[in-house]
Amino acid sequence: MSITSDLIRGHTDTIILASLINGDSYAYRINRGIYDATSGRYELKEATLYTAFKRLEESGCICSYWGDEETGARRRYYSITNRGRETYKKLINEWSEAKELIERLVIRDTADNG
Amino acid sequence: MSITSDLIRGHTDTIILASLINGDSYAYRINRGIYDATSGRYELKEATLYTAFKRLEESGCICSYWGDEETGARRRYYSITNRGRETYKKLINEWSEAKELIERLVIRDTADNG
DNA sequence: TGAAATACCTTGACAGACGAGGTATAATGT
DNA sequence: ACATTATACCTCGTCTGTCAAGGTATTTCA
Fold first, then answer.
1. Contact between B6 and A3 using a beta-carbon 8 Å cutoff
2. Where along chain A do its domains lie?
3. Domain A2-113 coded CATH 3.40.30.10
């Protein structure tokens, strides 16, 4: 893990919702997906992961059910709700704006910048 | 203020250091600069602002001195140190990487994403 | 005279991230 | 046979950054 978590902070929910947009999945697998998508450069800590799912379920963005695997460890599957999809869109827009603002703020080489 | 602070969280120090790269300034003016640079869409809360300056000074990234204004409110000026400049470069690189990773993670529309 | 702007600061609370610990099952290696 | 690793879930307590709310003091302007 090379990236400071504070930089990703605030995006955890968005990342999880993004993972669920294309279908139900379970926490452990989603985190593996994050790991893979970033070529191993980022993944959520387990404590962060499960508290995020709890938070998202409490706010009605996702709902969960136990998988019916006959073998292997039990899995709690999550499904994104309509509210979750709306929240996702909102979060994406916020990220888009935040990205521009940060870009503008962290690289300022004009003479008059306060 | 339309942007959730959590999205900017972790960038506060970078933003402040960026402001000081081009010359000494004081907290209130720097925050005004942030406000202007974002067309009023973002600014730091005062508590956040002064805590950040304290943190940066304690870590040796900036140092401070009182201005010699004969009139008006007293001003504490800040100057970026060599360590501060190095830290800034490091933070910029981290932001660059984080930006790519987040982009990759929040927009995932492939079939297999965990 | 009194409000607003400038400019500084602290305290306490809150939320998210995470280290450290726990449970249980299955697969793999020796 | 036995140990280790991987899968998969979870909680508790701590830490850190943000912020609401409060404060001080000066200057400007109506």
1. no
2. 2-113
3. no
**CB neighbour class for A101 (10 Å; exposed up to 12, middle 13-18, buried from 19):** buried
Q: How confident is the model at residue B108 (pLDDT cuts 50, 70, 90)?
A: confident
Distance, in Å, from the CA atom of B44 to the CA atom of B17, rounded to the nearest integer, reads: 14
Under DSSP, is residue B8 helix (H, G, I), strand (E, B) or coil?
helix
Q: On the CB side of B57, how many CA atoms lie within 13 Å of its CA?
A: 15
Contacts of A3 in chain B (CB under 8 A): 94, 97-98, 101
Q: Between the CA of A72 and the C1' of D2, what is the distance in angstroms?
A: 20
Q: Does residue B75 reach within 7 angstroms of strand C, measured from its CB? A: yes
Tokens of A23: 């279908």
pTM (predicted TM-score): 0.90
Please tell me which residue of chain B has the smallest CA distance to A92. Answer: B106
Whether B72 contacts chain A with CB within 8 A: no
Cα(A69)–Cα(A81) distance, integer angstroms: 23
Q: How does pLDDT run across B43-84, given as a tens digit for each residue?
A: 999 999 999 999 999 999 999 999 987 777 789 999 999 999
